[in-house]
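Renewal narrative, Specific Aim 1. Our central claim is that a sequence can be written position by position from structural information alone. The example that follows is taken directly from our test logs and has not been curated for this report. It begins with the structure tokens describing the chain, in the order in which they were read.
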């Protein structure tokens, strides 16, 4: 599959996007363990690997190959290395010496061994359903992209199928029969020391990806009715003149992560038909609302305007000494947490939804805020209110994989729809969407 240039973009625009994507890809290259292929959660030396980061990387490497940053052989070599690591990694109920259980993986792994990360670097991490879903989305991406007849790409497809089919999605399904309104929902995960994490994914969130992959599984599918239980009752709310199927707090990552892999344009489930717009339009509206919020700046933070905006889960300047400022936290509006911290990934990963408001921000940051862009792309976050000694104020010294990856992928979806087109071919995703009742759009056109 080759990427065709977007005819509406000038050479200057294409060069700017090449620069951003290449730098964000450099983050993944530099944060990859040479032995295992696992990708670190963040840029500090003692960081654990993140399985969600690996999921994003399994899309990032093919995009880099298509853009000419690396060769296809280099991309396949890395993909094969990491898939072999994941397949060979031990699974079991014991709290130590394993990478996962029931096909799920722990949120954080030791990058050198692939085993569950442990203190003091990270807490005893949980077996995570949503992070496993992000990982498996990347696994499915690799399975569809590497379609060559050679031994390496054949093995990539084989390992991808084995890894995905091993996940017992239904193991974390709520099955209680005593009029539990959450029957059919998926739990957040499991911790060997304490057992199941009883929280469920229900209502609009980043979890459409989790449910659709689980519903499409050929080996451990969850019931078709799970989709309606998960999202059927989601309500719309209006703020800043935008009617939105809203996640509480509205951090922008919930409107972006599923869209890295799933082309929601023009496909409708019962919920979409009820409200009158698809989930792509929903993300567009959520982005516009955030932009309007920044322009209005109701809390009076320094530096908020039409060019400096974007609230999502990210690092922050807080260290406990000042309760007004947080460290890593979800941020959103109008009812979410907001301490003046702006996350570039929130704005830039919205490029496919709202190019008319993202492009000015992207150009402005590249031209007038060089302190926000470096070897590994845009910084994770900055807060002009916390530190008024410079225009950007506090700047995060670290970068985070789950923020760097969506920028690269969503820029590519804007430029060429490449990631979406690769996943159009995925039988698991198609089955999940059809089980959830989606019709129209590419689901009809590509049959």
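The sequence written for that structure reads:
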């Amino acid at each position: 599959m080759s990427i065709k240039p977007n005819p509406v973009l000038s050479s200057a625009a294409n060069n700017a996007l090449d620069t951003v994507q290449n730098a964000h890809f450099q983050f993944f290259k530099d944060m990859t363990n040479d032995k295992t292929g696992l990708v670190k959660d963040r840029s500090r030396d003692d960081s654990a690997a993140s399985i969600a980061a690996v999921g994003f990387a399994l899309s990032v490497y093919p995009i880099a190959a298509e853009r000419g940053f690396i060769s296809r052989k280099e991309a396949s070599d890395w993909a094969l290395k990491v898939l072999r690591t994941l397949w060979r990694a031990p699974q079991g109920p014991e709290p130590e010496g394993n990478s996962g259980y029931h096909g799920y993986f722990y949120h954080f792994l030791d990058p050198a061994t692939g085993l569950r990360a442990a203190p003091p670097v990270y807490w005893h991490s949980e077996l995570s359903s949503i992070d496993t879903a992000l990982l498996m989305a990347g696994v499915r991406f690799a399975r569809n992209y590497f379609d060559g007849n050679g031994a390496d790409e054949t093995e990539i497809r084989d390992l991808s199928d084995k890894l995905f089919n091993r996940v017992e999605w239904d193991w974390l399904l709520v099955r209680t029969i005593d009029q539990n309104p959450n029957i059919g929902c998926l739990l957040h995960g499991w911790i060997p020391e304490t057992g199941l994490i009883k929280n469920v994914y229900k209502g609009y969130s980043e979890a459409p990806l989790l449910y659709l992959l689980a519903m499409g599984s050929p080996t451990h599918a969850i019931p078709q009715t799970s989709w309606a239980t998960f999202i059927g009752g989601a309500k719309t709310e209006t703020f800043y003149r935008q009617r939105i199927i809203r996640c509480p707090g509205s951090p922008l990552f919930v409107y972006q992560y599923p869209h890295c892999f799933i082309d929601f344009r023009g496909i409708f489930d019962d919920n979409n038909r009820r409200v009158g717009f698809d989930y792509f339009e929903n993300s567009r509206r959520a982005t516009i609302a955030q932009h309007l919020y920044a322009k209005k700046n109701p809390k009076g933070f320094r530096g908020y305007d039409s060019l400096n905006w974007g609230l999502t889960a990210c690092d922050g300047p807080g260290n406990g000494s000042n309760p007004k400022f947080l460290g890593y936290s979800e941020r959103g509006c109008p009812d979410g947490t907001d301490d003046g911290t702006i996350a570039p990934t929130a704005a830039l990963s919205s490029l496919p939804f709202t190019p008319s408001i993202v492009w000015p921000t992207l150009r402005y940051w590249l031209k007038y805020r060089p302190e926000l862009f470096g070897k590994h792309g845009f910084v994770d976050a900055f807060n002009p209110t916390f530190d008024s000694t410079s225009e950007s104020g506090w700047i995060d010294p670290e970068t985070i994989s789950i923020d760097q990856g969506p920028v690269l992928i969503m820029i590519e979806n804007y430029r060429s729809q490449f990631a979406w087109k690769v996943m159009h071919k995925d039988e698991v995703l198609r089955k999940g969407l059809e089980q959830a009742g989606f019709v129209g759009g590419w689901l009809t056109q590509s049959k």
